[in-house]
Amino acid sequence: MDAARDEPTILLRSAWQKYQVLVDGNVVYTASSERNGAFHLFRLPPGQELTVRFLDCAPGSDAESAVLQSQVYFGSRSGIQWMILRENLYAVLFSGFALVLGIACLLAAYCMQRQHFGNLYGSVCSLGAYILLAGVWVLTDSKILLLVSQKAGLVGLISYLSFYALHLPLLQFTIGVLPEKRRMLEILQAFYSGLLLLLMANFILSLPYLNVLVMAEHLLMTVTIALILHHGFREMRRGKNKALGRVMAGYVLFAVCSILAITIYYLDSSLPYSPVYMLGIFGFILLLAETAGQRVLEQINENANMAVYAKLAYRDVLTGLGNRAAFVRETQETKQSAAPFGYIMVDVNDLKKVNDTLGHPKGDALINRVAQCLQRAAAEKGNCYRIGGDEFVVSLNGSREALLACADRIREEIAAADAGSEFPVSAALGLAWSEDQPDPIPAQVFRQADDAMYADKKRMKASREA
């Protein structure tokens, strides 16, 4: 184990990826194209002389400049690995942060979609995708993966792809806070998508245009940031978009760090530009996450208010039962079902007399007492509605026997309430079952139950007069 840790190891970084590594004149490694990646870590066989020979490198060319900026680190395996870990620990920490926060955003977006949060879930989903791509780019752009994989070319490709794709979900998120600039932002998305396709074609066909594509990406980034800052601050001055403040602060930080990182990259690509760019992304993500969180809280409050209003729209305030609107909604649903159903119409007797002689509070108490009788009688088998001042309806599905049994329980409950009441509690009942009707639609069944209720009311009145 100790011998393996002390094996001679080389870490080579070069923007010119055509070279050979020789030990005592023998070739031990060859890089021949951009597919090989910029970083290489490998063990060396025992020997006395180490040579790195760069190929096809003409004096005064861009290749010579790239070669002069190359870096070679030589040492023991454990020493090189520790150096890589120490210099790239930031990438591990940031990627872990991005993984947790990105997945949290995607899960939140999924839950929001199920809870009908409108288009807000799309913004949170875009934010999650942006955070995850940022984590992938920072991780693959660092040297940390050399500790677990020597496929530097594949890692480099993933790094480029994630960097080019990074701006697509970011622009989609920005559409949510600058909806009036949707057309402009969608055009920018199309440009980024085109560059992403060109990058893949360049890799597949082994074309020598990677540097041109990188410059195009950096130029497009600069234009994008400038346009968003310009239009964002214009909207802020109008004072119509409260969420823009945090987003624009994030874009300013992102712009400063991006420009600084790009400047470092073109001055000397061997310098650590990635941490500078990552710092801008980190602050940007925090501000975007705060913006998204604030919008989610606002939407939750709005949904809660809407739920309260919806409940009130279908609820009788006095009794807590469903109101006429709720009953009409149920009849619309019943039309779509083939299941048999029935209605029990209930009309409270002598409500006007109680109001006139004992006062409206007693009349309200009478209404509430009858409502409680209906709820106890129907239990969980039916739905109770107050559809008028003294009129109620109970709807049931199942069987005719269940409808008749419910009507009997209503009479029993009302009789029990009347026995212990300071004012008379009574009501007329009428019921109808859909399968007994020639046209079993809700309106016809309801009309039949209503007619039966009025017949019962006349019978009760005649009985009292007799």
Automatic annotation (TrEMBL):
The GO molecular function terms of this record are: diguanylate cyclase activity
GO CC terms: plasma membrane
- Alphabetic keyword roster: Membrane, Transmembrane, Transmembrane helix
Where do the GGDEF domain residues begin and end?
Answer: 339-466
Ranges annotated as spanning the membrane:
89-112, 119-140, 152-178, 190-209, 215-233, 245-267, 273-289
> Looking at the Swiss-Prot or TrEMBL record, what is one Pfam family this protein matches?
GGDEF
Domain of life, per the record?
A: Bacteria
Q: Name one GO biological process term.
A: cell adhesion involved in single-species biofilm formation
Q: Which PANTHER family match?
A: DIGUANYLATE CYCLASE DGCM-RELATED (PTHR45138:SF9), REGULATORY COMPONENTS OF SENSORY TRANSDUCTION SYSTEM (PTHR45138)
Q: What is this protein identified as? A: GGDEF domain-containing protein
Species whose genome carries this gene: Faecalibacterium prausnitzii
